[in-house]
Amino acid sequence: MIELEEFEEGNPVNKEREKFNRRNEAILYHEDPVGAVFIGDSITAYWDIDSYFRHTEGKRLINRGVSDDYSMYCRRRFEADALQLNPELIILSVGVNNTKEASDSEKAADIIQQVVSDIRAMVEESKNRGINIVITSVTSINRPHTDLQGIRQDAIIEINRRLIELATEENIHFLNYYDVMTIDDKLNPELTIDGLHPHVKGYDKMAEVLTKQIKSIKLQ
After folding, report:
1. Coil, strand or helix: which one is 187?
2. Tell me: the pLDDT tens digits for 71-118?
3. What is the C-alpha separation between 128 and 78, in angstroms, rounded?
């Protein structure tokens, strides 16, 4: 079993490390069949997967989302929290937090490259292990009170354009949450409380997109 230690002090993903180690241990010890692992940031972490979905063969659906996760941190924990569980499918959704650092266009360009590079690496790792993987769009934001709304939104649009290209190159599914949740280049305010995280109506939209493309996962 791969049991990660906490990352450097202050890393936001540390808060879930011990819990995930113990839960991964239990899955491996009991040889639980895993239908899918959802891995990513708070948008994944806050999603009550069991309330929404069931696997068609009764296999487990595992949530390994961590609030404040960035693509490079997700990449570092990808082996421990996704691959070693040997799921049929991994649903990877990460990148919106990276864009918080986009203070100008030059920095945004670096962030776009980082996110796409990290996601590409995780896709390749999955395929090398014979595990199917799905990537999702980065969802839009609606925080006009911040000075970086425009820069962040432009970065998200470009990340998604490149992820669509990546999915086409790798012949994998791309779950486009962005289009069904966005109005005028902003997250639809009827789908969120804080302009970043979906509430139940936002997750309803995401669930519809997912189950239309992933036939092994059904709505409850």
Report:
1. strand
2. 999 999 999 999 999 999 999 999 999 999 998 999 999 999 999 999
3. 13
Number of C-beta neighbours around residue 190 at 10 A: 10
Decide: 90 and 37 in contact? Cβ < 8 Å.
yes
Phi first, then psi: what are they for 57, rounded to 5°?
Answer: -105, 15
Q: Taking a C-beta distance cutoff of 8 angstroms, is the pair 139, 187 a contact?
A: yes
Amino acid identity of 56? T
Cβ proximity of 7 and 76 under 8 Å: yes
Estimate to the nearest angstrom the gap between the alpha carbon of 205 and the chain centroid. Answer: 15
Tell me the backbone φ, ψ of residue 163, rounded to 5 degrees. Answer: -70, -35
Using CA atoms, how far residue 42 sits from 74, 88, 95, 145, 218, in Å, is 12, 23, 11, 21, 22
Residue 152 tokens, joined: 């962040």
Q: What domains can you pick out in the chain, each with its CATH number?
A: 33-219 (3.40.50.1110)
Overall pTM > 0.85: yes
pLDDT at 146: 76
In the predicted model, is pLDDT for residue 155 greater than 80? yes
Question: Helices (H) and strands (E) in the chain — how many of each?
Answer: 8, 9
CA-closest candidate to residue 34, choices 3, 69, 63: 63
CB distance 87 to 34 below 8 Å: yes
Q: Is the pLDDT of residue 119 over 80?
A: yes
